[in-house]
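An instance noted here:
***
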Amino acid sequence: MESLHKNKTWDLVKLPKGKKTVHCKWVFEKKEGTTGAEEPRYKARLVAKGYSQIPGVDFTDVFSPVVKHSSIRALLGIVAMHDLELEQLDVKTVFLHGELEEDIYMQQPEGFIVSEKENYVYLLKKSLYSLKQSPRQWYKRFDSFMTSHDFKRNSFESCVYFKKNSDGSFVYLLLYADDMLIAAKDKGKIRKVKDQLSEEFEMKDLGPTKKILGIEILRDRKSSKLYLSQKGYIEKVLCRFNIQSAKPVSTHLAAHFRLSSTLSPESDDEIGAVGSLMYVMVCSRPDLSYAVSAFGRTEDGVIRYVDADFARDFDRRRSLTGYVFTIEGCAISWKATLQTTVASSIAEAEYMEITEACKEAIWLKGLFSELNEDLQISTVFVDSQSAIFLTKDQMFHERTKHIDVQYLLFVILLLEVILL
């Protein structure tokens, strides 16, 4: 409550005639710390509820950009390759920093009702947790602050900022809600950015980065490597579903296993287990991608390898697309998912898969180029001879007329852009 008052979050007023109020509640949480770096903390948070019933509020522009996990890994790759310093900040009461553009009235919170003004309500001046506008309003204010301090927003990743110093070095900042990573060659440059941020926002300096989004970051500066680990999270998942005794295998799902919708996860535990593994797959374990994708779908530097498994889905006969990008031998982006349409041949499935991979390749190339990194993307490795020959021959003929024009033309254009 002290923080809420300090940020001038609301005014206590009488409810205007014809206006409705939003309810609120307290949410209590124990935030796990990082061994040797941060102790566990108990947190209380006041959140709004019933936002979907707010009359007269336009929700068409409430969504805030969310950083891709591949962007986090890409930044960590730059840090490792150039031996940059990497430190972390946390914004206290992050969503209270956003200014609201609508009149929203909220009931007084439990335990803090003002005596003799029990019928009064709060007119919110700042965004509050659980309001749909909150993430967007916070991002707008943060973006305005960063650009006013000569940082540029990356055109390919809205949550990555960079600044070129007078000596030619760069400072990078990555934002994920209330977490920030700052990287630079000189600790003094990082300290300067921290001071600027602390003047504008209430910050907590977490020092050298040890953990972000539940992913532990281990660093070996002698070998210029960073290691990402979700060991703690995985152990919690194993305990939650009582499978601590499960035996490890080298291949999580052999190629001869074919799954149909009759084998879909049905119980809450089965669905929860697949969902829990999806977060591991996205963050740090590309080796789980195929297996998790297979079970999940039955419910309803440089690019290196792309592949498609023709008509893999028994129920809808859609093909599976998979790709992985590596830089300095380390995977930074990967995907294994069913294609959105049904391919009528292996060649068509491969074309569709190459299209998805090339889009990611162009995105990665753009992201790195703006961060002053020259990412050479010259070769796409694919094991389909028909797809390779058709890429070299841009003429339509009888054998390829069935391939959707948008895929063929798009692949040709993408390959030309990459080769440029």
